[in-house]
Design brief:
The chain has helices spanning about 10-15, 20-25, 25-45, 70-85, 115-135, 140-155, 190-195, 220-230, 245-250, 260-270, 280-300, 315-335, 350-355, 360-375, 380-390, 400-410, 415-440, 440-455, 480-495, and strands spanning about 5, 50-55, 55-60, 60-65, 95, 165, 180-185, 210-215, 250, 260. Helix content is about 50%, strand content about 10%.
């Protein structure tokens, strides 16, 4: 359960405390809460982090929004649709609710027929939006409504729905590993509070090491009361993360042990591993891996706090330098044969999922290229920045030669359009060279690679790849050697142009 971080003082800072439900449903407040969620959605759900999930790559996580009543769900859903239409943002928002005798307590109910005519008509419209988005055919009739619930549940678990607005449904017994944030605008107490908060605590990877609870009502006393009743009241830190300042500056626990903060780790790294200096020796490498890994873990926690956004004291250039060195050590370990593994990596863990969260993207590289050409290529520091930015990314390292060649050859126009043209020409030329030099079957090879780029997966098993090879004797080792050589070349080609 060590996964929750309620947003502190949000009711006071963002939405003034108001006592009546009528005032809480005021259009201005609904619009303000919606705007806050959309403004902070990417931050809370870590949309800058891509990871493999069920055979595909997805960006970040998704969330639930628990509201106080069906009337609130209707108003919020309409406001989300309005604001998203204004901005053209492609977030998929859905809602589900049903009749229940008590809207304060989380519970599952599948009775849409018990809704008043206005609420049922609104839900029909929301389900119609869902049908249009996913090509389904659901409505509020008993059988189809249950099927809507099942389909919606599956799509939330598959991270196909970005935000789901609920009143009671999905707040008990629903588990989705991609769900990392619960927005709350309703009163929760005791078991219902613990059940609702627990929706975000299914750990997926090192990036999702906790869940976010963002409350638009003051639930501090209710949270403490529930934790005291359902858990050890003296161990609330096991459930709730510590205040922002503790992770930033460090803290001492009850036993007197000191936990260094983000600022302390930066100072230690600057002192022991100055930016740009080589890290020599087994002991030094081991210490650097541990220190930088600890920094990445703290940075991952701090990134959920609003105060950290735009106020990170670590310059991006320094982060890239240390990250590049960290990736160098990780790749050096990966290249070692099992019998050659040194002690430096035997008892440590590389936080590569957290590294990938910090990776610079190709759009950022193109922005640097634009600045590089705007200065007539005289800024050597900017040219070095391009190389260092590439080195800090595990995804872009395999494309370094390609990107650097583009930076030196592109002239005039928009870098984005020139980049697409450059990549397409180089990709076709390199594939043609591989086909000619390896004697591969042209049409089959082009189709094979087109499928690989479409699916973001190069299949090296099965019969597809051997079917590309020229006629060779099935006896002896020549065919297997040829297959291995072609596989290596196609894999390198795939990694170089993958995702571009």
């Amino acid at each position: 359960m060590r996964t929750f971080r309620p947003k502190e003082n949000l009711a006071d800072a963002q939405v003034p405390a108001i006592d009546t439900e009528r005032a809480l449903l005021a259009p201005e407040r609904i619009a303000g809460v919606t705007r806050y969620i959309l403004d902070h959605f990417d931050q809370k759900t870590k949309r800058g982090h891509a990871y493999a999930f069920k055979g595909r790559r997805v960006d970040g996580f998704n969330s639930l929004f628990a509201v106080a009543s069906i009337d609130a769900a209707k108003r919020y859903y309409a406001e989300f649709r309005r604001q998203l239409a204004e901005t053209g943002r492609p977030l998929r928002v859905a809602t589900i609710f049903s009749w229940a005798p008590n809207e304060e307590e989380p519970d599952e109910d599948f009775d849409a027929e018990g809704l008043d005519a206005s609420s049922r008509a609104f839900l029909e419209g929301a389900i119609g939006d869902y049908n249009a988005a996913f090509g389904t055919d659901f409505d509020t009739s008993p059988e189809k409504f249950q099927n809507y619930y099942k389909d919606l549940s599956r799509r939330v678990k598959n991270r196909e729905v970005d935000l789901l607005i609920v009143v009671n449904m999905f707040l008990t017994g629903f588990d989705a590993t991609t769900l990392n944030t619960l927005w709350v605008d309703k009163n929760l107490r005791m078991h219902g509070l613990i059940q609702a908060f627990s929706r975000t605590n299914r750990i997926l990877n090192s990036v999702k090491s906790y869940g976010n609870i963002v409350t638009f009502r003051d639930l501090r006393d209710e949270t403490n009361e529930a934790l005291a009743l359902f858990g050890d009241k003296d161990a609330r830190g096991v459930v709730l993360l510590r205040p922002y300042a503790d992770y930033l500056n460090g803290y001492d626990d009850g036993d007197g042990a000191h936990h260094p903060g983000y600022l302390e780790l930066i100072a230690l790294l600057r002192e022991r591993f100055p930016v740009g200096q080589p890290i020599v020796g087994e002991a030094a490498q081991k210490e650097f891996i541990r220190l930088f890994g600890a920094l990445l873990r703290l940075r991952n926690i701090l990134s959920a706090f609003d105060a950290f956004v735009g106020d990170d004291p670590l310059p991006p250039r320094d982060l890239q330098d240390w990250q590049g060195a960290y990736i160098d050590l990780w790749q050096a370990r990966a290249k070692q044969a099992p019998g050659e593994k040194t002690d430096v990596n035997d008892d440590i863990v590389f936080e590569m999922e957290l590294v990938r969260q910090e990776e610079i993207g190709i759009d950022d590289i193109l922005a640097l290229v634009r600045r590089y050409h705007a200065g007539d290529r005289q800024d050597k520091g900017l040219r070095l920045s391009i190389s260092k930015a590439i080195d800090s990314s595990t995804r872009l390292r395999s494309k370094k030669a390609l990107i650097e060649a583009f930076a030196e050859t592109v002239c005039g126009g928009e870098p984005e359009a020139a980049w697409r043209t450059f990549v397409q020409a180089r990709r076709e030329a390199e594939l043609e060279a591989i086909i000619a030099e390896e004697g591969l079957k042209p049409e089959q090879t082009r189709a094979f690679m087109a499928t690989a780029f479409r699916d973001d997966l190069l299949k090296t098993t099965g019969t597809d790849l051997p079917a590309l090879l020229p006629q060779l004797s099935r006896f002896g080792s020549a065919r297997e050697e040829k297959k291995a050589a072609v596989t290596r070349r196609l894999q390198a080609f795939f990694e170089r142009f993958r995702g571009l």
